[in-house]
Amino acid sequence: MSEDMLPQGAELGPVVFTALKVQERLLPVILHERDGHTLYVRELDRGESLQPIRFDPAIDRIVLMKPVAATRLCFGPEAGADDALTHDIRVVPDGREGSAVYMRTLRYGEADDGRRVHLRPGEHAVIRAGSLVIELDALDEHFASGLEGYAPLANTVWTWLMLPGPKRDASRAWYVLAAARRLDAAAATWSRVTDLFSSLQAVPKASTGPRTRAIVFELVSGVELTVIALRRVVQMVECASSKVGAGTPVPNVVVRLSPHLTAVRDAFEHIDERALGEVRGKPHPDATSVFNQQRLVSDRAIVYGNHQITADEVAELLSACRQFLKDVVKSK
User: Fold this and answer.
1) How far is it, in rounded angstroms, from Cα 224 to Cα 58?
2) How far is residue 288's CA from residue 285's CA, in Å, rounded to a whole number?
3) Which of 104, 132, 160 is a domain's end point?
4) Is the per-residue pLDDT at 205 higher than 70?
5) H-type helices in the chain, by residue range?
6) Residue 220 has pLDDT above 60, yes or no
7) What confidence tier does 142 reach under pLDDT thresholds 50, 70, 90?
8) What sign does the CA torsion over 177, 178, 179, 183 have?
9) Euclidean distance between CA atoms 132 and 67, whole angstroms
10) Which of 48, 64, 80 corresponds to the end of one domain?
11) By residue range, what is the domain housing residue 80?
12) Distance, C-alpha 283 to centroid of its chain
């Protein structure tokens, strides 16, 4: 034990302490075990209470244990490199045997009481076969930590597909990953759209000046890009069964809104044709209605002809497609 780890006042004789000064930092500790005149102490874990530790510097020595709260799962030839890291995995104690200190992964949905694995010098952490469990929902929650609303999915999908396991169908993997990336793009654009909706609320209703027009033009552009990207995702969801053999049922909201999303998407994607009043090269009475997005501003509704999708329904589609892709990627 180095001198800078002595409890305060120990140089004068026996003391009772609850913390150690380690590298200019006061570290709360608790007694793990007393072995003769050796005191094995460990950092206080979350939820634990301080308990006084008796120490006599004349005969006792203090050994500070090493805490382990998580392990890292890596792949590739250079484990530990940033590009080989999948994610940090929370681990908890799972028993001791000799110099082996067992730990296991915290299961998804299991309450985390803050316990960590603590190692004495000479001990080593061991994960038994079957104790390292990676769950898709836990992985997804890990990457989404701290985010509000829609959480990007592509990183979760990619990491899950990179984990060792039964040989996966490459076509399905690329298909789901491509759909997840496109969905993330649609969600990112839609996030900007919702910010613009809020910006319009701060503008006086009677205002039609340059600032208001700039917001409306950006709003419509964001809606266009969202609809185009989201339609591709919806199409991939609808075709997942026939294209890659996915057995996950298509969400009801996708079935219900797909025709409306398709019509609006076609109008936005072929805006040059609609500007000429045409649909597929022929005059059409609904063609130029794509330029009238008054209800987008007043009701947050995307309208083309007799087709309509509300802002709430866009959010429903994003959520439903996200869950569908997760279900597909974890299914065999």
Assistant:
1) 77
2) 7
3) 132
4) no
5) 136-144, 154-162, 170-201, 210-244, 252-269, 271-275, 294-299, 311-330
6) yes
7) confident
8) positive
9) 19
10) 64
11) 68-132
12) 47
